[in-house]
Amino acid sequence: MTIKKNMRTSGQALIEYLFIISFMTFITITMVKGLGKTLMQSVGYLGYELTEQFSVGVCARECFYTGYKNQAKK
Q1: Can you tell me the distance from the alpha carbon of 43 to that of 15, in angstroms, rounded to the nearest whole number?
Q2: Residue 67 phi/psi, 5° resolution?
Q3: Quick check: 58 and 71 in contact, CB under 8 A?
Q4: What whole-number distance in Å separates Cα of residue 28 and Cα of residue 57?
Q5: Angle at 38 between CA 31 and CA 27, to 5 degrees
Q6: Which residues contact 53 (CB under 8 A, 6 or more apart)?
Q7: pLDDT value for 2
Q8: In angstroms, rounded to a whole number, what is the distance separating the alpha carbons of residues 61 and 56?
Q9: Can you give the pTM of this predicted structure?
């Protein structure tokens, strides 16, 4: 009788461990997806800003960036 009770208890513990591991895996995958989405948005914003700077040009004077060909001479 005690052998069956021990087998039932160990089986229940195994199922509980599987639930815990699957929950932790779900949380980890969700976090990685969120981080990837944030990283892609940041790279997209950076690409947009670089495209604007290189295609439109810079201000005529008192610019933060210097050395562009289309910048007015002082």
Answers
A1: 42
A2: 100, 5
A3: yes
A4: 43
A5: 5
A6: 65
A7: 54
A8: 15
A9: 0.52
